[in-house]
């Protein structure tokens, strides 16, 4: 029988819905049909004999001609369109001699389905992006910072003034004084206020993860890393503010890396070579005596100076007792909403007691005491008996908190009265109370509390979170 002529073959190929290219084993173009040539604005004479990579965008024909592995229905962008490409090795007498490839537009139905799927993904993405952005907006403004005492008003005014500058701020003050609230308010009224506010608690992130949290990581940087890598918080905070909370707990090795990033205004994601420019303002906070840490060599002096361009020292509640009344009123308003109550007030004796107390946990402690009282309240007046035991004890705890032993004495706990219930509930109850007692004793220092309890700080933070202890 007579073989098909070249004209016949050409005609048959042109009738098919696909464009065809043939390469030899070296990936040199041996044939390309007219429709394909027209599609990429060239001619057969022009392309024959050229490496296929020089002729077709994003081609993999030369690879298939080498590997002998077919590739079916691969999406390949060519000339601004996404094409569906299939590539087959040509095997003659058991040897790979080249490859044939076809491309065509996807089936209109498939294309529509594909477009719908993508549109759905784009919609989901924009929803999650707006949710994340909402999360990253700082939640408080200066109006949320309550206090009429001269020392508080002075620091609030100062914070307002410096919020306009772009310099780093170091906020110090005892636990629960409102450092995080100040950081939020400063960001909000700064020029960066419409950009993200990204808080990170340096104490609660395990040392080995801190760098990748802050600077991100490249694909395959370590086992368990997410495919495609992950942006670090410095990148997430672009044009906004990074709030480095508990900076005193940052390990020394990380301090050096942070210093370098701040000096060079760029970061290097973990496991990568490239550097990424950063544009963020830094607000750092700590309840620790950071100057002492510098003297002792546990905090880098150069980093301290870099962070401490502006320092805000938030006064503790015991030094502004005149604020207790107005703070209690504001906190009660907040709690009334949470507990569906109305018109809750403090009795004069309770207010008097509050004024005597030393408030080692500051405003957070006041908030906790009021929340506890509202929980057990019969009417709308908080009285002596609604206070926790340690406040009902009249002895001066000013001396007490400085003692080197916890103020809840062992013999006060009557173990025979423990309720009969699943053991894990009792264990949890005792664990929670022990943590609360220890935090009171350490005046809110979580690090010290974790040390006293003989557990790691990460595990301590996890427990606090699990028991809702702030
Ligand atoms: N001046 C204030 N006005 C209103 N609420 C305040 C004020 N100060 C603190 N608070 C409230 O007290 C709680 C503790 O504040 P915040 O978390 O900012 O303290 P902090 O200084 O960061 O404490 P820590 O060192 O333990 O992290 C929060 O619930 C906050 O809303
Ligand atoms: Mg804080």
From TrEMBL:
The keyword Metal-binding does not apply. Residues 5-50 form the PAS domain. Pfam families: AAA_lid_14, HTH_8, PAS, Sigma54_activat. The keyword Transcription applies. Gene3D superfamilies: 1.10.8.60, Homeodomain-like (1.10.10.60), P-loop containing nucleotide triphosphate hydrolases (3.40.50.300), PAS domain (3.30.450.20). SUPFAM superfamilies: Homeodomain-like, P-loop containing nucleoside triphosphate hydrolases, PYP-like sensor domain (PAS domain). InterPro entries: AAA+_ATPase (IPR003593), AAA_lid_NorR (IPR058031), Homeodomain-like_sf (IPR009057), HTH_Fis (IPR002197), P-loop_NTPase (IPR027417), PAS (IPR000014), PAS-like_dom_sf (IPR035965), PAS_fold (IPR013767). Keywords: ATP-binding, Coiled coil, Nucleotide-binding, Transcription, Transcription regulation. Signal peptide: none annotated. This is AAA domain-containing protein. It comes from Ornithinibacillus caprae. The lineage of its organism: Bacteria, Bacillati, Bacillota, Bacilli, Bacillales.
